[in-house]
Specification:
Structural class: alpha/beta
CATH class of the largest domain: Alpha Beta
Order of helices and strands: EHHEHEHEHEHHHEEEHEEHEHEHEHHH
Number of strands: 13
Strand order of the largest sheet: 3-2-1-4-5-6-7
Distance between the termini: 11 Å
């Protein structure tokens, strides 16, 4: 029996994909210790992991925003704060291996300091320098985004210099802070959904979803659903398309022969949207049984993040993606290239464009067929068993 330590970022979209992998390792008599924030404790313990709370750290003191270049200083600050607290905590666990998220610079450094074999868990899309800098949409705005994030990038340079000097680790390039590659990198996409897939070698294992199920149960008025096609609209619990999107969405589906379950973004109040059509059920953020609704859905309107795409195609549901970040952009484009849905850019959103997009996807069986094909690719990719085989092979 071996022992693994998991270190993750505190976001549901990064924790959920690992649950099936944790359960599979436990089935093989591995002991798994999982460092996270308390809001994930019950769910992690429900699959059998031993929960350890992250130690508190000082708030990030620099600038931030949606610009992806702000991610480097934020993650480097977290590493600067957490590594000295985590090294001894992880050492005390005496792990045979460490599994850390691709955003966990602190996980990579802890593994290097302790000399423990490490695996990167990739919850979104895998990135490399070529795929990050090669995207035409990013190249067009890269100069402006770097200029906007200049103050934060200066902090990143200071903190990475400090980390290298203190822990004797190798170079930390900007892209390293949100890739943190290891000799083994487990990606929860099938290769068919990975953007720029040809740029990733054998050290990247595309295993598909490790487990589409969650222990958490959420009440929902399923009795209100009828025979009309169901459109499920959700942008997760982090990103928001904004009030204008929701207003346009309500206008687009008003009077249409379909039902809509619309999940609000955090902090939004349904009262702000005014009159809600009779064919729309509005739910607060994070308060829906997403997988059960996707089983019934005719269309999934989402932001195109890795978790949503995986879950949508797992059930063969066509997608309408309105991406909010660069990572979601390239994943959404890949989904559309595979024919499982279409992309609507945020600047294009209106009542008319949403209505046209919804009607287009619902009227063509090709989108559902291609989504089902990608779902089959997810199942064929090996999932938790293939990932566990590979992890135990390096331990």
């Amino acid at each position: 029996m071996g022992k693994g330590v998991f270190l993750n970022v505190s976001a549901a979209g990064h924790v959920i994909p690992t649950l099936g992998l944790v359960a599979e390792l436990l089935r093989r008599d591995e002991e798994i210790v999982y460092f996270e924030v308390p809001r994930f404790q019950a769910e992690l313990e429900s699959v059998g992991a031993a929960f350890r709370p992250y130690p508190p750290i000082q708030p990030y003191p620099g600038p931030g925003g949606e610009n992806q270049y702000f991610l480097a200083p934020i993650l480097t600050w977290c590493a600067r704060e957490w590594v000295p607290r985590l090294v001894e905590a992880v050492r005390a666990e005496q792990p045979d291996y460490i599994v850390h998220d691709s955003l966990c610079l602190w996980g990579r450094i802890v593994a290097q300091v302790l000399g423990v074999p490490a695996v990167t868990s990739v919850a979104t899309a895998a990135f490399c320098a070529e795929s990050f800098h090669g995207c035409p949409r990013l190249r067009a705005v890269r100069r402006d985004k770097i200029a906007e994030a200049r103050k934060g990038l200066r902090l990143f340079c200071d903190w990475r210099r400090e980390l290298r000097a203190r822990y004797g680790v190798g170079p930390i390039a900007l892209i390293d802070t949100f890739t943190n590659h290891q000799p083994l990198n487990v990606c929860y996409l099938p290769r068919e959904l990975q953007p720029y897939a040809a740029k990733f070698g054998d050290e990247f294992l595309f295993v598909g979803p490790c487990n589409p199920l969650r222990a958490r149960r959420v009440e929902f008025p399923f009795e209100r659903l009828d025979k009309r096609p169901l459109v499920f609209v959700s942008f997760g619990t982090v990103h928001s398309p904004g009030r204008a999107f929701f207003e346009a969405c309500l206008a687009a589906v008003r009077g249409e022969d379909l039902q809509v379950v619309l999940v609000l973004s955090p902090g939004m109040d349904v009262a702000a949207l005014g009159d809600v059509p009779e064919n729309v059920i509005v739910r607060p953020a994070g308060n829906v049984p997403q997988l059960e609704l996707l089983e019934r859905a005719a269309l999934f309107v989402t932001h195109g993040a890795g978790g949503g795409l995986r879950e949508g195609v797992w059930y063969g549901v066509p997608l309408l993606a309105v991406p909010q970040t660069y990572e979601q952009e390239i994943l959404s484009i890949q989904m559309a290239v595979q024919g499982a849905g279409i992309v609507l850019w945020p600047t294009e959103v209106s009542r008319a464009s949403l209505q046209t997009a919804i009607r287009t996807v619902l009227s063509s069986p090709t989108y559902r067929e291609n989504s089902a094909r990608l779902g089959a690719a997810c199942r064929a990719a090996g999932g938790a068993k293939r990932a566990a085989d590979a992890i135990l092979g390096i331990a």
